[in-house]
Amino acid sequence: MTNGHLDIIGRASRLYDEVVAAVLINPRKAGLFTVDERIELLEEVTASYGNVRVDTFSGLLVDYCKANDIPVVVKGLRAVSDFDYELQQAQMNHGLAGVETLFMATNPLFSFLSSSLIKEVAKYGGDVSAHVPEAVRRRLVDRLDTQ
């Protein structure tokens, strides 16, 4: 979770009565943190938003949305390259289940951030404190120190 993710969640929380930050369970992807750890971190950094709920899902996002009566997916866009991919997903999601997608332009302060870039910088001892919530920075540094 970067400050870019948190910015989008915070802005969405001002637009909607409830925001669900959903963590994908993808057994084919080995992340730095387990799903449970990601949930814990997400809950911690979104605790100040009274209307953000953290959940998990596997499979198709639209199936999760349909099962939970979620009509809109909010996506942050950093660059034109994000738009090309996200537009295809949005059109597929709408075609499959009528789920709408709201694109939010990322705050320019965070437009270059990606989780993989943050992990790489932290792995080599770089300071990522300006780019991730403090709880994430601590856990990231601790995890990389043990590897």
From TrEMBL:
Gene3D superfamilies: HUPs (3.40.50.620). Its main location: cytoplasm. It is found in: Cytoplasm. Substrate binds at K29, L61, K75. It catalyses: (R)-4'-phosphopantetheine + ATP + H(+) = 3'-dephospho-CoA + diphosphate. ATP binds at H5, G76, L77, R78, E86, F110, S111, F112, L113, S114, S115, S116. The keyword Cytoplasm applies. Pathway: Cofactor biosynthesis; coenzyme A biosynthesis; CoA from (R)-pantothenate: step 4/5. The record marks H5 as: Transition state stabilizer. Its cofactor is Mg(2+). It holds the Pfam family CTP_transf_like. It is an enzyme of class 2 (transferase). GO terms for molecular function: nucleotidyltransferase activity. Its EC number is 2.7.7.3. Residues 2-120 form the Cytidyltransferase-like domain. Keywords: ATP-binding, Coenzyme A biosynthesis, Cytoplasm, Magnesium, Nucleotide-binding, Nucleotidyltransferase, Transferase. Belongs to the bacterial CoaD family. PANTHER family: PHOSPHOPANTETHEINE ADENYLYLTRANSFERASE. Reversibly transfers an adenylyl group from ATP to 4'-phosphopantetheine, yielding dephospho-CoA (dPCoA) and pyrophosphate. Homohexamer. This is Phosphopantetheine adenylyltransferase. It comes from Cryptosporangium japonicum.
